[in-house]
Amino acid sequence: MKSIIWLVTLLTAIPATAQPIVIKMGNVLSTRHGVMPGHMIRVQQHLARRIQENTNGEVIWEVLEGKRADIPPFTMPAMTAKGDVIQATNVPAFFFPRVPEMMIQSIPFLFTGAEHSRRFATSEPARWMAEKVEHAYDVKVLGFFVVASDVSINGVIPIVDPEDFAGKVMNGFHDTWKPMWTEITPKRIEFVSNADAVKGKLVEEGSDFDINIGMIQNNHSQSLYERFEYTNLVPNFYNIFYTAVINWDVWSSLTPFQQAGIDAAARDAENAAIAYQHDTMMWAYQLNQSEGSTMRMQTAAEREAWKAAFHARMKSAIAKNSSDPAETLAMIQKIQDLVKDLEWR
């Protein structure tokens, strides 16, 4: 009899129809049919699958693909803090301008490879950046997903040495990178958005661009092979991470089980991002080659020359622009030290 009473009590304590919690995540990416999906789209889909699996379906992570009029891209962190339209977002470092330290990720050749990126995501410097984002935007940081490390330098002539940038008309890079060009000076630097580049802005008749700098995964959709014959793939020119954030009230309303499931999914997605990024980079390299581009990869000696030309200026400028230059320089050193045990002896 006691067993029956215990069973009835247990069953009545379980909600009959528990509805899953739906968390809507804003982002700026869309699936393009007919080409390999962008690696960050794949990462976000991976994250959503893992969250649903880890929480036994109690949390549904809904990725809102593409740009929407009701979700302006650069306001997404602030919209996430409000939580009414979207409750989470996943955007690159320069979408957080209140935290200039995030641009440490743009320092040329700070990172050495995939293992370096993997170690960064859960490192002390990453937690330091996360705390600054959380304080500035009133959101919780879930993780850092690498989106770009191997940079495509497309030229109407081969761009091999740092001096090859001098006197050229160049597309690429956020304003943050201006300190790189204080001695080697391009004729003009213009930023053409991906959307305009896909419409043919870089290759249209009358275009005077000599160099394009960007992700090799975008070369096909932007038809760069129509103008830029030469492509130099430069590993770890920068290492940019998308940062996933969630509304604090939503996070606090989740059970410990649900929070743990999301955290585990984020760690898994951080590792998956490295593989997805490499996967699509190699696919794009081969596709560019098949479309007639002359492809090459930067040599070790060239890397050292480029690092000597660009690294110190960017490191100094970003530290100077931070809230605490000494602390920022210390964190940059800690990022460098993440792979000290892997250095060649």
Q: Which key phrases capture this entry?
A:
single chain, 345 residues, alpha/beta, D-Maltodextrin-Binding Protein, domain 2, 2 domains, 6-stranded mixed sheet, 5-stranded mixed sheet, globular, disordered N terminus
Can you characterise this structure?
The protein has 345 residues and is α/β, with parallel strands linked by helices. The chain has 2 domains: 18-146 and 238-285, D-Maltodextrin-Binding Protein, domain 2, CATH 3.40.190; 151-237 and 293-309, 3-Layer(aba) Sandwich (D-Maltodextrin-Binding Protein, domain 2). 39% of the residues lie in helices and 17% in strands. It has 10 helices and 11 strands. The chain has helices at 2-13, 39-54, 76-82, 114-120, 124-137, 194-198, 248-253, 256-290, 300-320, 325-337; strands spanning 21-26, 59-64, 88-92, 139-148, 151-155, 169-171, 188-190, 211-215, 230-234, 240-247, 294-297. It has a 6-stranded mixed sheet, with helices on one face. Strands 2-1-3-10-4 form a 5-stranded mixed sheet, sandwiched between helices. Strand 1 (21-26), helix 2 and strand 2 form a beta-alpha-beta unit. The longest helix is centred in the last third of the chain and has 35 residues, at 256-290.
